[in-house]
UniProtKB/TrEMBL annotation:
Residues 30-96 form the Alpha-D-phosphohexomutase C-terminal domain. This is Unannotated protein. Gene3D superfamilies: Alpha-D-phosphohexomutase, C-terminal domain. GO terms for molecular function: intramolecular phosphotransferase activity; metal ion binding. SUPFAM superfamilies: Phosphoglucomutase, C-terminal domain (SSF55957). Pfam families: PGM_PMM_IV. Keywords: Isomerase, Magnesium, Metal-binding, Phosphoprotein. The keyword Metal-binding applies.
Amino acid sequence: MQLLSVLRSRQQNLSAAAQEAMTSLPQVLINVSIQGGITPQNLLNENRGVISEVEQLLKGMGRVLVRASGTEPLVRVMVEAQTSAEAQKYAEHIANALSHPSSEQGR
């Protein structure tokens, strides 16, 4: 009810209000193949620091999602940032860390 009241007072429809409220950011998705017998969960756990580092660098002006694929031996890295270049840089940074696991992983 309150939403309808606000829309009416602004003389705005729901789609216009949603478009105004939601900012679309450039997004990059990189799939990282899992090799060497390491489990996706172990790979993610080993790289929590890198993922947190990128989240801090974004300073709340973007988003990071890293998850194991449910159907393939992949980890999916998705980064949204203010610019396409920034999203690409951070996604590649995480993907590189995932692609080059430490020698102690999986042991």
